Amino acid sequence: MKRTFLEKIGFSETAPPQDKCDQVLHLSFENQIALWSLRAVLKGPDYSERVHRQFHKTLPTAAARLAFESIDTVVQTVCDYGIRSLRFNCLCQSALTEDEQKLIEFFQIAQTDTLFEIREAARAFVNPPGIDAWVNATLTFFAALETRHSESAQGMTALTLSTTIH
Fold first, then answer.
1. Percent of the chain that is helix, strand, coil (3-state, to 5)
2. CA Rg, the chain, in Å?
């Protein structure tokens, strides 16, 4: 509450806010993976299969399944309950669209803030009936990525995923 009040009057106890990130390379590793996954799944079934294979190469089996299902749920939730369509760049673009920037801001909230704040931020993307699905999918995705430091069934680590998307 104190933080919110201080922000409203233009004072922050933390570092000054940074400019909006408008390039993929400036995103955290987790946010790069989330954006790459969404862009690829939206590109079509062949690319969706690439995402599926890559998750299974680099994450433990259960985490790979959860990560892939979470991406699908995010897309389906926007289709079913979205306030509006979201515009994504293709995989080859390093720049972020305005919608991608807002989505990355939401991902950062999902990784750092309370559930109440996450649910409130979700309202910018989906109507109330879709909030739970949107939030659960996002939190599950990032939880699944946390397992990347453990070995997958094929014995590979996150380095493989990192070099694949770069």
1. 70, 0, 30
2. 16
